[in-house]
Amino acid sequence: MRDEQASLTNPEPYAFAAAGEGLASPRDYFELLKPRVMSLVIFTALVGLVRAPGDVHPIIAFTALLCIAVGAGAAGALNMWWDADIDAIMSRTRKRPVPSGRVTAHEALAFGLTLSAFSVVVLGLLVNALAGALLAFTIFFYVVIYTMWLKRSTPQNIVIGGAAGAFPPLVAWAAASGTVSLEPVLLFAIIFFWTPPHFWALALYRADDYARAGVPMLPVTAGPDETRLQILLYTLFLVPLAASPAVLGYVGYAYGAVAVLAGAWMIALAWRVYRRREGEAAVKAAKGLFGFSIVYLFALFATLLGEAVIGGLLR
């Protein structure tokens, strides 16, 4: 059914796929890993690893980060395998390795499953069982719960599915300490509530793409005005949540200052998205929020990392 939908809507990518089998290069397989997403995963996991209590042997730390990165890449490959039909329809994704025919669906599936098994088993055996179990659940959640189920069935897809992208610091914390506490749960919550305004800002100016592919993103099902309201509401909840580690004494003054200042700008941009609803001004506002939301999350986690490194050097 999925293949029929893609063929009827945009047959060219699958015609090219049949002709292009066997042309995969190492770069194509690397692209299957979603390297930009993987870089964010590695960074947030590194923060969880560094901020966890106790000292971690460098080899254990490297092994944990490698497994988390490979697990994220494996989930990305399985996502591209399953979503090849809608990726072929959307202008943003039609040049990915599977819909363009450079990698076959079977190759992407085998690649993703192999990397999934490798990352979970190695993390579980060489680091600890809790971290391995959390990584396995993360991959399962992203591939089965989000990609196979939520993405095509509900406009809340990115809200619930955002949990998959929020797990890396939790997995890394477990890898370093063998436990989970409130601090890594807060890191999880920050990424979780950051995800909807981040992706809905993108969806506002990519709504036609999602509608053409039949993906029920919020701007498609509820309209752009409701999406703007939800972006503002989530942002208003996110900003004090992001400042809560400072209030609870987990972090220093530098993080608190960054959380407040960057959060104020995040709210201002969300308000601009809410207010600007017509024409190029609306598109510009949505793009501005989408771009800054990446900077916002990076600034928060970079400050967390910097405080932990400086604190370690001063001990």
TrEMBL record:
Cited Gene3D superfamilies: UbiA prenyltransferase
Enzyme class: transferase
Transmembrane region(s): 37-53, 59-82, 103-123, 129-150, 157-179, 185-205, 231-248, 254-274, 294-314
Gene Ontology biological process terms, A to Z: heme O biosynthetic process
Enzyme Commission code: 2.5.1.141
Topological type in the membrane: Multi-pass membrane protein
GO cellular component: plasma membrane
GO molecular function: protoheme IX farnesyltransferase activity
Cross-referenced InterPro entries: Protohaem_IX_farnesylTrfase (IPR006369), UbiA_prenyltransferase (IPR000537), UbiA_prenylTrfase_CS (IPR030470), UbiA_sf (IPR044878)
Domain of life (superkingdom): Bacteria
Catalytically driven reaction(s): heme b + (2E,6E)-farnesyl diphosphate + H2O = Fe(II)-heme o + diphosphate
Primary localisation category: membrane
Subcellular localization: Cell inner membrane; Cell membrane
Alphabetically ordered keywords of this record: Cell inner membrane, Cell membrane, Heme biosynthesis, Membrane, Transferase, Transmembrane, Transmembrane helix
Pathway: Porphyrin-containing compound metabolism; heme O biosynthesis; heme O from protoheme: step 1/1
PANTHER family named in the record: 4-HYDROXYBENZOATE SOLANESYLTRANSFERASE, PROTOHEME IX FARNESYLTRANSFERASE, MITOCHONDRIAL
Primary role: Converts heme B (protoheme IX) to heme O by substitution of the vinyl group on carbon 2 of heme B porphyrin ring with a hydroxyethyl farnesyl side group.
Further details from the record: Carbon 2 of the heme B porphyrin ring is defined according to the Fischer nomenclature.
Family: Belongs to the UbiA prenyltransferase family. Protoheme IX farnesyltransferase subfamily.
Protein name: Protoheme IX farnesyltransferase
Biological source species: Xanthobacter autotrophicus (strain ATCC BAA-1158 / Py2)
Gene: ctaB
